[in-house]
Sequence to fold (501 residues):
Amino acid sequence: MRKHLLSIDDVTADDIGALFETAAEMHDVQRREVKKLPALRGRTVINLFFEDSTRTRSSFEIAGKWLSADVINLSAKGSSTSKGESLRDTLLTVTAMGIDGLVMRHSASGAAHQVAGWLDIPVINAGDGMHEHPTQALLDAYTLTRHLGSVEGKHVAIVGDLTHSRVFRSNIKALAKLGARVTVVAPPTLMPSGVGPWSAEAGYATSYDLDAVLPTADAVMMLRVQKERMSGGYFPTAREYTVGYGLTRSRLAMLKPGTPILHPGPMNRGLEISPDAADAASSLILDQVSAGVAVRMAVLYHLLAGEESLA
Amino acid sequence: MSEATTAPDRPDEGRVVLDEADIARALTRISHEIIEHNKGAEGLVLLGLHTRGVPLAKRIAVRIAEVEGTPVPTGSLDVTMYRDDLRTHPTRAPHRTELPASGIDGRTVVLVDDVLYSGRTIRAALDALSDLGRPAAVRLAVLVDRGHRELPIRADHVGKNLPTARSERVKLRLVETDGVDEVRITGGEA
Fold:
């Protein structure tokens, strides 16, 4: 495994296998009375979030704490960046305090890569702009693997706001490494430009027609419509989006029975996903959340617990 | 997971110090000692330490069941995350920790390992156990005690005491994992 986890490109299929194996053990720890392992005792991890987050940040915090690391949360609001300090100075300052690992979310694509070049501690990308969100892709693939046995040869539909989605960009790489067949579905306005040739290379298909894709899907991953990243004009009305690309009650009936439904959250209920789908028996949305802690424990363990020379 | 079992796999290297029959006898004796000390099989749980302690625990459980007529709950314990040398090795994925459904609270837990050497694996196992529950008592059974303890830890049941030099390696192979039952000593001054 490489020193940092900035992108799914940093892990091989074997690394993913080792992470999943570890995550399965961590999943058992979640059910124990004493939810603590001593693997990261004496290590300090900082969660530096320049963008809002509930589940990712708390998930990383819990993961670190269950491994006995000291975890510090810093959000941009109230930090010295709001006083005009540069990103580099902020990071050099906090790492000078003796931090062993950095988990960072930033609204700029590539921020984590940039930061990893400045620091000599492991950096974990918790989402950078519209680029990547590797731990989300790992937990999605882990959830699917646990549910389906394996994702190899399985047909996964990823549906929604692809243009603004780092989850989609990490997921297509992770699913490809694990041998899944992926179709990405979006309205033409939310399909990233140049995705055509790009998709042939990465081995996945694109479609504008959700109804045509659903009947052959072995799993459906709905993505959030990211209103905060839109300057408007991607679709005429919310209602129109739902009619074309929402996982509505009537579309649920098009799926093979029991097809798992995923959503990275937070959900816009009634927009990209109907309550019928979100709360369906086949919905894995809450499994994704609990898997998130286990997978992040695995990532922290593999990046921070080992040989000093690697860290 | 014992530090003594990580020798490079060269099947015919060194000399055999315990063969199949020796191992079978040692396990039978350990089984009887466990029963005798516990006055039966009541409340026993056998926990094997990865990797080769796990099949050893199962074999001992079979022998105890033969004598006592009741099955003995077994499980496996992985101590990777509890080791004190985590930071001197590349990380590896932990093995499965599986406790019997009855749990370990109030039970007499017998930890089973292949080779007792520095005692550090057992130290880690005791820490792991205390996170999993509160046994009434913890005992330790090992197939081979090769000496060179670095911590105040001793085994309650020992299959064979093998005086060794630190430069030597003691390697257990089992039918379940390696296709053959034997203990070999390799290395050291010839």
